[in-house]
Design brief:
Number of helices: 3
Radius of gyration: 14 Å
CATH architecture of one domain: 2-Layer Sandwich
CATH class of one domain: Alpha Beta
Number of strands: 4
Strand content: 25-35%
């Protein structure tokens, strides 16, 4: 079953954030992640949620997303991400269609 890593990001330092994204992209791909949303414009529809930037990454399994998040390579990038941005994230299980 696919799982999704959804991240709401507020960029604090664009130069540092560019360094982070350059390093995290190949790492996401190494763990089988696929970007579905990567920081394009967001259009609020209801409520007061006004994220500056959203990222949505699909992984094939919960194990793969957990392996990515706990990998030594990603753990080493966390301080850079924290200096460059503030963020909130969740993992959501996908829906499997019976065809």
């Amino acid at each position: 079953m696919p799982v999704y890593l959804l991240i709401e990001i507020n960029v604090l330092d664009h130069e540092l954030y560019a360094e982070y994204t350059a390093q995290v992209l190949p790492l996401v791909e190494r763990y089988g992640g696929r970007y579905l949303i990567r920081g394009r414009e967001v259009f609020p529809v209801s409520g007061n949620w006004r994220p500056e930037r959203l990222v949505l990454v699909q992984f094939e399994t919960m194990d793969l997303v957990q392996d990515f998040l706990t990998s030594p390579e990603y753990q080493a990038l966390i301080p850079l991400r924290q200096r460059a941005s503030s963020s909130r994230s969740i993992i959501a299980e996908g829906y499997e269609y019976d065809i």
